[in-house]
Amino acid sequence: MEIEYVRTTCPYCGCGCEILLETVDGRITQTLPSKTNPMNQGKLCIKGWNVHEFVQSPQRLTKPLLKKDGVLQEVSWDEALDFTASRLQEIKAKYGGDSMAFLSSAKCSNEENYLFQKFCRVGFGTNNVDHCARL
Amino acid sequence: MTNSIPEIEDADCIFIIGSNTSVAHPLIASRIYKAKAKGAKIIVADPRRIHVTSVADIHVRQKLGSDVALINGLMNVIVSKGLHDKPFIEERTEGFEKLEQTLKNYPPEKVSEITGVSVEDLEKIAITFASSDKSTILYAMGITQHSHGVDNVKSLANLSMLTGKIGKPSCGVNPLRGQNNVQGACDMGGLPNVYPAYQVVTDENNRKKFEQMWNTQLSSKVGFTIMEMMHGLEDGSIKGMVILGENPAGSDPDVKHVKHALEEAEFLAVIDIFLTDTAKIADVVFPGASFAEKDGTFSNTERNVLRIRKAVNPPGDAKPDWRIICDISTRFGLPMTYESPEKIFDEIALVTPSYAGLSYARLEKGPIPWPCPTKDHPGTPILHKDRFTRGRGLFHALEYRPPEELADEEFPTLLTTGRFFPHYHTGTMTRNSITLENEMSEGYIEIHPHDAKAIGLTSGENCKIVSRRGTVITKAVVTDIVEPGTIFMSFHFMEANANVLTNPALDPICKIPEYKVCAVRVEKLEESNSLETEVAANA
Which domain holds residue A77? Predict the structure, then answer.
């Protein structure tokens, strides 16, 4: 049995509490608050204490899905990526880059948000990128 | 936030307005309790009797959407009693004369009439806030989610500058961000008018700089905001959309309308960890990784840049979102070959002046608040210490405007929205958490005993809520947490979502919708509508 503790940050609200995810043989077994972090000082809220539960929910998406005959069906990464790339190229060629819109995410990392807006601005020459800050 | 979270507990006066702190930011609420124990005065302005009012020295229940009038009234009292910080106003600000002129229109008696707050309470709050040594303002979406949200925020900045309570420890104007990385998404340029670090796209120098760094040609036209994108889908100016980890079909106002708009898209791709209501409409859905399955950084509400670290593998064939973006981009014809989030972060530091001094190596020792312009800079926990970003702080003379939709004969009740303690936003994460779902598995409205009695509604009974946009059936809880004439509801529960009802009226400047006020009608369900008919129909 291999137990590990990974220091990371709670993904719920804007507090940014530091947590330790306890993993046993590659599965998260519990969430613990960091005692040394000045933000949460050994405390967590009910959402934070249970944050690993949604991560391991059986409802998680595990495969790319593509709509065929009106129904989302599991497909390979190659099929989903090729389909997406060709649809994006078609729309850009037919209607121009300003006909695309991109919704970035306040739940994703800085790195992901940076790449996403770069993809929008460089790939399509448009500034049509926003996220839920105003919602 | 202009100041850091730990500073809150050393404040002498905490003014909480439009923040249900103990529910939405529990660990910030714990700082408020500590401050209270150290003798701080706690002032809460909230239409509901929320939990944090249990430690309040003063709680006032302003009418929904009357905040500009309330804050102008407080400033009127402060100026007329000579409690404003004259040296600070003189040395650090401009526009005071205009503000002073406008404040004359807001004598306490008139403000009391608009807001429902007594003249005595207005004076008590004004005197306590202005005469305490360290006074801080905490606010959240109760301030921003209005058709005059920008005016509300500017009014709070006015109050803070007027009393010289900014740029100092345990003071400041402090928005409590509702999402873990809403700060970071803004910092990274996930906005239609700015590149990373708020460098505006219409400025030619900024554009040239990014064109050079990204080796491309960029658009000088400000892009669409989220609500404009939805309108664009309907009028045909937007044909395709890529959505990363958001659920507009649950979170936007008037969701029936939003779902219809998304269905209009010729192409819709969604990257998410669950099959959200938005993902269900998509043509293609990519399975992303949760925070526990990837490396990266978040920027919290106090501007601290924090590491997230991979603990486990994503389930099945799911992949980290950064890798999915790279893969889509590369196949589209724009190669992205970053080996790791750290490599992406190094590029961020190159193009984002406020992050320029940050690196994974430095963050390993602990979070650092931006601006951090150089490798040896310690970070900036307190903003505006010696000067404001623009030089002098600008007062905005603002007039009160009522909410867009008011109660009338047909829709006599006002609905306001917010969160419940075990849940979060559209419930995508919390309703997939067994413990939290067991804690609260269905939503409800809060309705005042007086209003419930008038229509013969009792606690636990289902009722129908109707607005100009739609109808929702949910349980009623009869409570005086809300005032007569108002009800409260959340948007955690997709089967009974407040956003079916909410008004998509926007703030003219920042385009935030007015989630916090709309007109509805509460109806008791007819007996014949319920079980009996169903039984009869099945027989």
Answer: 62-95
